[in-house]
Write a structure and sequence with these properties.
Order of helices and strands: HHEEHHHHHHEHEHEHEHEH
Strand content: 5-15%
CATH class of the largest domain: Alpha Beta
Distance between the termini: 55 Å
Radius of gyration: 22 Å
Strand order of the largest sheet: 4-3-5-6-7
CATH architecture of the largest domain: 3-Layer(aba) Sandwich
CATH superfamily of the largest domain: Cobalamin-binding domain
Number of strands: 7
Shape: globular
Length: 324
C-alpha cells in the first residue's frame, strides 16, 4: 500500500479539485492550513493555491482519521510525531486524479452579477455552481463582503423597486442562508479556545449577518456556537449561566431590536464569570447614537471590523472600532 511520501510533490491542482477529490471543504482546508500549518501549497501566478498529489494523500489520510472520531489536532500531532521518526502513514487515493485547471480570475463584481441572475431566476443549480466557484477562488471574507452581501443588497433593491416578488427575495436569502449554514457546520469545532455565543437580538429576524460573524470567528479558531435569530434574553441568560461562554455577541438590523440590548449587560451582571457582551449590526450603522446608549462593546460597522474587534478584546488589547 502506498505511503503519503510516495506521492509526487509537483503542485498543479486547485483547491476546488482537491476538495472534490478529498471531501474536505475549501473553508475547512484553509482553516487546517492556517491553524495547524499542515500544508504549504504553492501559488500560481494569479496568487491562487496549488496542491500536489502528496497534499491530496495527506488530506485523505487526515479526513479518514477525523471520520473515525479522532480530532484533527490529534491526527496532525500523530502525523508529525511519525514524520519525525521517519514513518509515513499509508494513504490510498481511490478516486480518479483531478484534472489540473486554472482558478477563476474573474472580479467579484462578475460573481455578483451571475449569482444575482441565478437567484432571481430561482435556478438553484446555477447559483450553487457560482458559489462553488467563488468558494474556490476567494477567501471567506471576500466571499461574504464582496459577493454575498452585494448580491443580497441588489436583490433587496430589486424587491423595493418592484422588479421582483417578495417571494423571490425570500427564496434568495433562504438559499444563501442554507449555504452559509453548510459552511458553518463543515468547519472544525475547537474545544480548548475562547467560547463565543453568537445570535440575533430579541425581535431580530434577519440572521445572515450574525451567521456570517459566527462563521468567520470559527474560521479564526474560536469555539463558536451560533444560536439563531430572535433570542429571548431571559432564556439566554439562563443558558449563559450554565454554559459560561467567554463572550456573547448579539446583532440587530432594525432599531426596535436594539431596545432590549440596552439592559442585557445588566442582566448578565450576576453571571459568574460575567461574559463579555459585544454587539453590532445595521441598526447601529444607521443610528450611531444608539452606540452610546448600549452598554457593552460595539464591534464595528463591517463584519471584518467586528472580527478584528473581537480578536483584540479576547487578546486583552483595546481597540476602537469607530476609529476604523
Amino acid at each position: 500500500m502506498p505511503k503519503i511520501v510516495d506521492y509526487p510533490e509537483d503542485a498543479k491542482y486547485n483547491i476546488k479539485s482537491v476538495s472534490q477529490r478529498t471531501g474536505v471543504q475549501p473553508v475547512t482546508l484553509r482553516a487546517w492550513e492556517r491553524r495547524y500549518n499542515i500544508l504549504e501549497p504553492s501559488r500560481a501566478q494569479n496568487g491562487y493555491r496549488l496542491y500536489s498529489e502528496r497534499d491530496i494523500a495527506l488530506l485523505v489520510w487526515l479526513k479518514n482519521q477525523v471520520d473515525a472520531g479522532i480530532s484533527i489536532s490529534s491526527a496532525i500531532a500523530d502525523f508529525r510525531a511519525n514524520t519525525r521518526k521517519g514513518i509515513s502513514p499509508e494513504a490510498v487515493i481511490n478516486t480518479p486524479s483531478p484534472t489540473p485547471s486554472k482558478r477563476s480570475s474573474l472580479p467579484t463584481s462578475d460573481f455578483v452579477k451571475r449569482l444575482y441572475h441565478a437567484l432571481v431566476s430561482r435556478d438553484e443549480t446555477a447559483a450553487t455552481e457560482v458559489l462553488e466557484q467563488a468558494l474556490a477562488s476567494f477567501d471567506l471574507h471576500a466571499l461574504v463582503e464582496a459577493i454575498l452581501f452585494p448580491t443580497l443588497r441588489d436583490i433587496g433593491d430589486a424587491w423595493y423597486n418592484g422588479k421582483i416578488f417578495v417571494a423571490v427575495e425570500h427564496f434568495a436569502s433562504g438559499f444563501i442562508r442554507s449555504k452559509l449554514m453548510a459552511i458553518y457546520q463543515s468547519m472544525p469545532v475547537h474545544r480548548r479556545v475562547s467560547y463565543i455565543m453568537v445570535g440575533g437580538a430579541p425581535g431580530e429576524l434577519h440572521e445572515i449577518g450574525s451567521l456570517v460573524t459566527a462563521i468567520l470567528l470559527r474560521e479564526a479558531g474560536y469555539r463558536v456556537e451560533y444560536l439563531g435569530p430572535d433570542l429571548p434574553l431571559d432564556d439566554l441568560v439562563q443558558y449563559i449561566k450554565e454554559e459560561k461562554p467567554k463572550m456573547v455577541i448579539l446583532s440587530a438590523t432594525i432599531q426596535e431590536a436594539t431596545e432590549d440590548l440596552v439592559k442585557f449587560d445588566e442582566l448578565i451582571s450576576g453571571v459568574k464569570p460575567k461574559p463579555i457582551f459585544g454587539y453590532g449590526g445595521a441598526a447601529f450603522n444607521r443610528h450611531p447614537e444608539l452606540i452610546s446608549k448600549t452598554p457593552g462593546s460595539y464591534l464595528g460597522e463591517t463584519i471584518s471590523q467586528s472580527i478584528k474587534t473581537v480578536q483584540a478584546i479576547l487578546e486583552g488589547k483595546k481597540r476602537d472600532p469607530l476609529a476604523g
